């Protein structure tokens, strides 16, 4: 990055690694110095929580507000009915209005931990694009908005081109998505004076379309900025773990499991993740990221504590660390412990220890579990397991339960409250 920004927000974006591309560095930088810049990110309501893959965008909105600007959280109540085709191999399943509204309610809970909502000039607002999309008149929309879009240009965008190159079907419904997202930017500029759209680098084509449309219709200059699409150093998609998505909503992923996900960060990712997902000074992030051997584990615990504090509060982070110390350090377990999460429904009146050993992946069958127990190879919380008929209820899972098969293979069982 050769551009040297003057505004605090742009400086943070560049220095901490949030910035992949920007439509006009200098003009945006000048706008950020001149006054409060309202900026938005759109989130489609395809689930009732966001996961860690969206956290980089949420942190961008947090830094935006911390540096004196106004975050607009745009919920895609309208666009979710279409589904973003960007870099997808197939069409998203269509949701009902009730499902979409329930998902928006769940997502709202996540944001209040990261940005401050209110009526002040830099307070965040949450807006639903169903407000303007649901009532659109199709013929008027085609005439007033559709005429500004070149199909040739839309086909050239990588998000569409990659789908067509693989000869995978792209429905007319999905093809409309980029027009609707462009229209969102136009409406947010008209209604809220929004000057900037933030998003992942897979949204570049959609963002550019919105800028172009707003210039043509309103003759206003607005800007786009994208963040890199993150993968871990071993090539995995950010936000996924062994047992699925790492959700930000505590009802879908317990604070303990959330903490553990960050504690299990690969050594090579620690410095980068500290810059992106915490507010520690950059010099400290670099120092911690350069640690080696057992010292890097202290940096991982700090990372887990900082990220969990932002998402779930300091008390949840403190409890998670204490639980981890109790479970791990007593038994000298390695870093990456598989975790099985059970709901009250899964447990019912009780679940057998044999079933738990199978669910944890430590054994392949009930028969193998019983043999392991009979040969004194199984342990529960580091105590030898001798009763193959042992039943586990919710009370027994008030704290995470550690299962062991031999000396080196372990798993954790957690009850979701």
TrEMBL record:
<keyword id="KW-0547">Nucleotide-binding</keyword>
<dbReference type="GO" id="GO:0006437">
    <property type="term" value="P:tyrosyl-tRNA aminoacylation"/>
</dbReference>
<protein>
    <recommendedName>
        <fullName>Tyrosine--tRNA ligase</fullName>
        <ecNumber>6.1.1.1</ecNumber>
    </recommendedName>
</protein>
<keyword id="KW-0436">Ligase</keyword>
<dbReference type="GO" id="GO:0005524">
    <property type="term" value="F:ATP binding"/>
</dbReference>
<dbReference type="InterPro" id="IPR002307">
    <property type="entry name" value="Tyr-tRNA-ligase"/>
</dbReference>
<feature type="short sequence motif" description="'HIGH' region">
    <location>
        <begin position="45"/>
        <end position="54"/>
    </location>
</feature>
<feature type="binding site">
    <location>
        <position position="181"/>
    </location>
    <ligand>
        <name>L-tyrosine</name>
    </ligand>
</feature>
<keyword id="KW-0067">ATP-binding</keyword>
<dbReference type="GO" id="GO:0003723">
    <property type="term" value="F:RNA binding"/>
</dbReference>
<keyword id="KW-0648">Protein biosynthesis</keyword>
<comment type="subunit">
    <text>Homodimer.</text>
</comment>
<dbReference type="Pfam" id="PF00579">
    <property type="entry name" value="tRNA-synt_1b"/>
</dbReference>
<keyword id="KW-0694">RNA-binding</keyword>
<comment type="function">
    <text>Catalyzes the attachment of tyrosine to tRNA(Tyr) in a two-step reaction: tyrosine is first activated by ATP to form Tyr-AMP and then transferred to the acceptor end of tRNA(Tyr).</text>
</comment>
<dbReference type="GO" id="GO:0004831">
    <property type="term" value="F:tyrosine-tRNA ligase activity"/>
</dbReference>
<comment type="similarity">
    <text>Belongs to the class-I aminoacyl-tRNA synthetase family. TyrS type 1 subfamily.</text>
</comment>
<feature type="short sequence motif" description="'KMSKS' region">
    <location>
        <begin position="237"/>
        <end position="241"/>
    </location>
</feature>
<dbReference type="GO" id="GO:0005829">
    <property type="term" value="C:cytosol"/>
</dbReference>
<keyword id="KW-0963">Cytoplasm</keyword>
<dbReference type="GO" id="GO:0042803">
    <property type="term" value="F:protein homodimerization activity"/>
</dbReference>
<feature type="domain" description="Tyrosine--tRNA ligase SYY-like C-terminal">
    <location>
        <begin position="335"/>
        <end position="395"/>
    </location>
</feature>
<dbReference type="InterPro" id="IPR024088">
    <property type="entry name" value="Tyr-tRNA-ligase_bac-type"/>
</dbReference>
<dbReference type="InterPro" id="IPR054608">
    <property type="entry name" value="SYY-like_C"/>
</dbReference>
<dbReference type="Pfam" id="PF22421">
    <property type="entry name" value="SYY_C-terminal"/>
</dbReference>
<dbReference type="InterPro" id="IPR024107">
    <property type="entry name" value="Tyr-tRNA-ligase_bac_1"/>
</dbReference>
<dbReference type="InterPro" id="IPR002305">
    <property type="entry name" value="aa-tRNA-synth_Ic"/>
</dbReference>
<feature type="binding site">
    <location>
        <position position="40"/>
    </location>
    <ligand>
        <name>L-tyrosine</name>
    </ligand>
</feature>
<keyword id="KW-0030">Aminoacyl-tRNA synthetase</keyword>
<dbReference type="InterPro" id="IPR014729">
    <property type="entry name" value="Rossmann-like_a/b/a_fold"/>
</dbReference>
<feature type="binding site">
    <location>
        <position position="240"/>
    </location>
    <ligand>
        <name>ATP</name>
    </ligand>
</feature>
<dbReference type="InterPro" id="IPR036986">
    <property type="entry name" value="S4_RNA-bd_sf"/>
</dbReference>
<feature type="binding site">
    <location>
        <position position="177"/>
    </location>
    <ligand>
        <name>L-tyrosine</name>
    </ligand>
</feature>
């Amino acid at each position: 990055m050769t551009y040297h920004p003057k505004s605090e927000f742009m400086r943070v974006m560049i220095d901490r690694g949030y910035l992949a591309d920007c439509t006009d560095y200098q003009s945006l930088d000048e706008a950020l110095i001149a006054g409060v810049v309202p900026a938005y990110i759109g989130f489609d309501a395809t689930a009732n929580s966001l996961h860690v893959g969206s956290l980089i965008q949420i942190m961008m909105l947090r830094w935006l507000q911390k540096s004196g600007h106004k975050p607009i959280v745009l919920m895609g109540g309208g666009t979710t009915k279409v589904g973003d085709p960007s870099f997808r191999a197939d069409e998203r399943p269509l949701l009902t209005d009730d499902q979409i509204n329930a998902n928006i309610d769940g997502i709202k809970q996540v944001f209040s931990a990261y940005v401050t909502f209110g009526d002040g000039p830099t307070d965040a607002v949450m807006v639903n694009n169903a407000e303007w999309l649901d009532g659109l008149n199709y013929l008027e929309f085609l005439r007033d908005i559709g005429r500004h879009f070149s199909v040739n240009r839309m086909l050239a965008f990588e998000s569409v081109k990659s789908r067509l190159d693989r000869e995978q079907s792209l429905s007319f419904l999905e093809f409309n998505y980029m027009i609707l997202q462009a229209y969102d930017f136009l409406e947010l500029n008209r209604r809220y004076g929004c000057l900037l759209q933030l998003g992942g680098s897979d949204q570049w084509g959609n963002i550019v379309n919105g800028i172009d449309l707003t210039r043509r219709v309103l003759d206003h200059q607005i800007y786009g900025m994208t963040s890199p699409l993150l993968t871990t150093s071993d090539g995995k998609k950010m936000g996924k773990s062994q047992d699925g998505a790492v959700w930000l909503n505590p009802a879908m992923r317990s604070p303990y499991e959330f903490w553990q996900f960050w504690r299990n960060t690969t050594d090579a990712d620690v410095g980068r993740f500290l810059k992106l997902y915490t507010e520690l000074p950059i010099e400290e992030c670099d120092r911690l990221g350069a640690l080696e051997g057992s010292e890097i584990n202290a940096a991982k615990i700090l990372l887990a504590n900082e990220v969990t504090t932002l998402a779930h509060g300091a008390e949840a982070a403190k409890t998670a660390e204490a639980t981890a110390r109790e479970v791990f350090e007593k038994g000298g377990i390695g870093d990456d412990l598989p975790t099985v999460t059970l709901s009250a429904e899964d447990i019912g009146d009780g679940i057998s220890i044999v079933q738990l050993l199978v669910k944890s992946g430590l054994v392949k069958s009930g028969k193998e579990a019983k043999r392991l127990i009979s040969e004194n190879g199984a342990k529960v919380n580091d105590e030898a397991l001798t009763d193959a008929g042992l039943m586990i209820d919710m009370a027994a899972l008030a704290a995470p339960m550690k299962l062991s098969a031999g000396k080196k293979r372990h798993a954790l069982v957690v009850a979701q409250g």
